[in-house]
Amino acid sequence: MAFTLATWNINSVRLREGLVQKLMREEGPDVLCLQECKSPVDLIPTEGFAKLGYPYMVARGQKGYNGVAILSRLPIAEAGAEDFAGLGHARHIAGRLENGVTVHNFYVPAGGDKPDREVNEKFGQKLDYLTEMRDWFKAAAPEKSILVGDLNIAPREDDVWDHKKMLKIVSHTPVEVDLLAEVQDAGGWADVTRADIPEGLLYSWWSYRAKDWDAADKGRRLDHVWATEDICQAAHSSRVLRAARGWEKPSDHAPVFATFDL
Questions:
Q1: What Å distances lie between residue 19 and 13, 44, 48, 251, 258, CA to CA?
Q2: Fold of 2-261
């Protein structure tokens, strides 16, 4: 069975319900993972999504902040949700497809502005969250699994617009990049996007602060698709839908796609 998966930090699923529907109509991913839904689960506008062929959802939500959801054309059953670092945040949901593939949808804390946990509590929370992710995967190595989401780290030099200028900016600091690599190694995860697109600048996020985000093009690849070693070779056709960043009243993130032949 082949299926296409997309991950997208939507920055309010209710505010941008129309954009989610646009993506469903025009791109039609079989599985759509959303982050930063900013909604309790019971207020996610599922009726309109179901009418477009997405009757299945597993989700964790909270009012005004965080929130993750997996919308699917394919039957999907909840497979757990973890509260890493004990933050009480809705930042992880897992669902299992009928073919046995488990999809983990993550929204890693952004980490605030200063990369110093002594003066910035949010940065400490981010490091603690990643550390517990690493330890969780180390304790029970995942199999036949896909991990997606806004991981809020651009790990490679060509995942940011200027590597040297970004080294002291949260999302690209060495401590974050190294810790994300530990998470990846602990779970035996392969970076599907970069396996498909191994070279060149690649972004999935552009700041709202830029007057012309497209012309400035000061992006970061914060959104990721990983797969365990037992299925990563089945992945192909990775892409970032950059055009979505230019839609009316957009999220500051663009959807990232991959197809799996499983």
A1: 9, 14, 12, 9, 19
A2: Deoxyribonuclease I; Chain A (3.60.10)
Residue type, 62: Q
- Greatest Cα pair distance, the chain, in angstroms, is 49
Helix, strand and coil percent figures for the chain, each rounded to 5: 30, 30, 40
Spell out the domain ranges in the chain.
2-261
Which pLDDT belongs to residue 254? 98
- Is residue 128 within 8 Å of residue 86, measured between CB atoms? no
Task: In whole angstroms, give the CA distance from residue 54 to residue 62.
Answer: 22
Per-residue model confidence as pLDDT tens digits over 68-126:
999 999 999 999 999 999 999 999 999 999 999 999 999 999 999 999 999 999 999 99
Distance (Å, whole) CA 211 – CA 196:
31
Integer-rounded Cα Rg, in Å, for the chain is: 17
Give the pLDDT score at 244: 98
pTM higher than the cut 0.90: yes
Residue type (1 letter), 230: D
Helices 174-187 & 121-139 angle (0-180, nearest 10): 20
Q: Would you state the structure tokens that stand for residue 117, as one six-digit string?
A: 């946990």
At 1 the pLDDT is 83
